[in-house]
Specification:
The protein is α/β, with parallel strands linked by helices. The protein has a single domain (3-239), classed as Alpha-Beta Complex (Spore Coat Polysaccharide Biosynthesis Protein SpsA, Chain A). 46% of the residues lie in helices and 15% in strands. The protein contains 8 helices and 7 strands; from the N terminus they run E-H-E-H-E-H-E-H-E-H-E-H-H-E-H. Strands 3-2-1-4-6-5-7 form a 7-stranded mixed β-sheet, with helices on both faces. Helix 5 runs parallel beside helix 8 and helix 7 runs parallel beside helix 8 (210-239).
Length: 240
């Protein structure tokens, strides 16, 4: 099974060396693609010095656009499966095997959940925690499936889903997590969660805070409801 690790990276020159070192030590058999999302620092140079593939984007598209670039690369280079992995040091390379084992078990999309452990240690702020709870309930209502971590960016994808997302991946902020999760469910793909531990961010800064973050959560909820309504109308027409 040819496996590609996709690392969307925007101004991650501080954290990226450690991340690439860990990947090389833990999963040297997998190929790595760093999608440099219009960085203004030395992100691309760091990746090239580490000897990994780099897909430089001319300007910042956001995580969704960077991931879609990676999916298209995976399709074009005939990879069997893809792992989405953060460039900021939060994800643990030792747990990539846990996600891939679930793919081998028949899943099309595997989400590494920060909150599935009985004794979970990952914490979030009050605003973010409340917004994430609303998203979890909304996804459960719209998809009929329960997920504990709808915004996790630690995921693995089967070849059929990689092909679908190469053309249809959401590119807006949070679309790369919540909307992508719903799309996979709507398209009939098997989506599962596995418990994982995550580290604190090792460098850089989070992309959104406070008011801007709430705006994106509200926008995502509107998109989710609109997409679900459109899909219901399409299904009704197909049945008729």
């Amino acid at each position: 099974m040819r496996t590609l690790l996709i690392l969307p990276a925007y101004n991650e020159e501080d954290a990226l060396p450690g991340v690439l070192h860990e990947l090389r030590a833990v999963v040297p058999e997998f190929d790595v693609l760093v999608v440099d999302d219009g960085s203004t620092d030395g992100t691309a140079a760091v990746a090239r010095r580490a000897g990994v593939r780099v897909a430089p984007l001319p300007f910042n598209l956001g995580v969704g656009g960077a991931l879609q670039t990676g999916f298209r690369y995976a399709v074009g280079h005939d990879y069997d499966r893809v792992v989405q992995f953060d460039a900021d040091g939060q994800h643990d390379a030792h747990q990539i095997g846990t996600l891939l084992a679930a793919l081998d078990g028949g899943a099309d999309m595997v989400v590494g959940s920060r909150f599935a452990h009985e004794a979970r240690t990952y914490t979030t702020g009050r605003v973010r925690s409340g917004a994430m709870r609303i998203l979890r309930l909304s996804v459960q209502f719209l998809s009929g499936q329960r997920f504990s971590d709808t915004s996790s960016g630690f995921r693995a994808f089967s070849r059929p889903l990689v092909e679908f997302f190469a053309d249809n991946y959401p590119v807006e902020y949070l679309g790369d997590t919540v909307e992508a999760l719903l799309l996979a469910c709507y398209e009939g793909h098997r989506v599962v969660e596995v418990p994982v531990h995550m580290h604190p961010r090792q460098g850089g800064t989070p992309s959104n805070r406070n008011v801007k973050l709430m705006y994106h959560y509200v926008r995502t909820l509107v998109i989710m409801v609109t997409t679900a309504s459109l899909r219901r109308r399409q299904l009704n027409k197909a049945v008729a």
